[in-house]
Each structure stands twice: as structure tokens, then as C-alpha cells.
Amino acid sequence: MRDNDLADVFSEYGPVVSAKIVIDNKTRRSKGFGFVELSDEGNEDAAIAGLDGKETQGRQLRVSKAMGGKK
Fold this sequence. Notes:
The chain is an alpha+beta fold.
């Protein structure tokens, strides 16, 4: 999955400000997680409920709020 794929998955819950898959600097491969910021924070709970456990590109998503994020 690439950044734009991640943005596409979340876009049904509102405009995506940013979507970033975390890449290992040594191997240049995905570390298996990423971060998404939606323009409307009110849509976060709907995105979590709708996407957590959903399968995309043959992998099951685990969606939750980032620890230590904005308050």
C-alpha cells in the first residue's frame, strides 16, 4: 500500500489532509503502519468504526487514534 492508496481508503469519511505509510530507512519497505489526518476531526470516530477490521489489498486494517496526538 502506498500513501495515495491509504488516502483513498479513508476518503469516504471526508477529505484527507495527509496520509503517510511509515517506511523503514534501511530496507525501504513499509513498517506495516501509517498515519492519516482527516480535515474534519468529527469524522475520526466514523472512520475508526468503519475501517477497523476491514480488509483491503489482502490485509486486515487496524485503525485507532494515534497516541500522543493533538488534544
